[in-house]
Amino acid sequence: MAQQIKSPNVEKNNFKNPYFSVLGVLVIVILFTILWRPLNLERTVYVPLNPQAETTVTDNPRSPVVVGDGQIEMVDSKSASKQLTESSDIPEDEIAKDELDDIIDDKDNTVQYTISRGDTLHDILIRYNVNKNDIYQLTTKFKQLANLRIGQQISWTTDDAHNLQTFSWTISSNNIRIYEKSGDKFVESSETADGVPQDIVIKGEIKSNFVADARKSGLTSSEIGIITRALQWRLDFRRLQIGDKFLVLLSREMHGKRLSNSQLLGVRIKNGSKDYYAILADDGKYYDVNGASLAQSFVRYPLSKRARVSSGFNPRRLHPITGQVTPHNGVDFAVSRGTPVLSVGNGEVVIAKYSGSAGNYIAIRHGRQYMTTYMHLDKILVKPGQQVKQGDKIALSGNTGRSTGPHLHFELHINNKPVNPLTASLPISEGLTGKSKNAFIAKVKNIKSQLSF
Ligand SMILES: [Zn+2]
If you classify domain 115-191 with CATH, what class do you get? Predict the structure, then answer.
């Protein structure tokens, strides 16, 4: 603020004595500070999206100012307190939700997870929205947790506020480590499973919907979650028909009455005349019967060329005036109007319309866990319900909605939570090859024989 008032006019004034100049500036600053708030309450203010520029606010509502690299966006102060993020304008209920979402969401307080390549405990727990302080406590106190191996199983329970209550790590069927919260610290104990893992096959038929019927057949929420995640790119579970069937092969181990370890070895879903398989490989991932990946790959950027990031992802961005946390849930790319915007993955367009703050915007759902949004577009080239492929031109970038300069605002949501699209771990789809493929094909034969109706 002070810098703007110390304009050339003030510096080149008639005061001979420099102290008078300083005094004059001070008086103006103080007066300005007192008067500024009430004066601006009903006026428009500029909110810099650049986190470094957060404290700079201009007193002139008519000329947009660019601070450093920052993209400055206009926010009407009347709605500032309730609607500052560009994405908050997306009405939640427009995106079709169903029971599958609830399972994949973090509403399920107990999660079972099989470690796969590239996983770190910290990243896994962050992805599931576990309280960061708990993650820190656990991983710094128990350094051995850095030794998780591919295929090992971990499970944890959180309370409704995402605080970690217990965490268990199955090193082998005979060696289970339990970390229980006591006070604000975690205490380690170990358990020996008394059971022998047993293969069981669970059979079911669609009578209402997959989740309900899978539950009725005896599958746990986390087992259902594993199935819907593994097959999310091949099969739309909402399109299963009454009379379709499923078979699930599990290796379950009991510790007393508690299910201490469960591994989903394979699943077969019969949709009409088509069969869908997901078979667990030694790397802890699921593949189809030919060893091809079930995962979907994403590209990092929704543009054909790299563009400068004018404002980064910042979930804790503070509004300079209200002092409230007003997250920037995406990344802004500085691109000129008319730049082609590309879908980062295969998916279905769920929203393609104009909205006040987001301007022309598109939301694409990729499988069950991922969603991307593209805002301030000049022209939308797709329609809701349309299937798009990775790299498809979906729009031309622009400057529509609450935006004062041409840019593309891009968001990535995993499990309905915005994440930093530039750093989030994205699925890579690689099939099995060589020795591991041969071993897998042999395993498939055995598992397939147990999955017959
Ligand atoms: Zn933005």
Answer: alpha beta
Instruction: Tell me the CA–centroid distance for residue 329 and ligand 1, in Å.
Output: 7
Domains of the chain by residue range:
41-94+297-424, 115-191, 198-295+431-450
| Spatial CA neighbour of 260 closest among 108, 106, 112, 107 | 112
- Using CA atoms, how far apart are residues 314 and 293, in angstroms rounded to an integer? 33
Model confidence pLDDT, tens digit, residues 395-438: 999 999 988 899 999 999 988 889 999 888 887 778 899 999 99
The one-letter code for the residue type at 188 is E
Distance 87 CA to ligand 1 centre (A): 9
Given a cut of 50, whether residue 385 has pLDDT beyond it is: yes
- 87 vs 282, more confident: 282
Using pLDDT thresholds of 50, 70 and 90, give the confidence band for residue 208: very high
Decide if domain 41-94+297-424 falls under CATH 2.70.70.10: yes
Tell me, in angstroms, the distance from the centre of ligand 1 to residue 310's CA: 9
Helix (H) and strand (E) counts in the chain:
10, 22
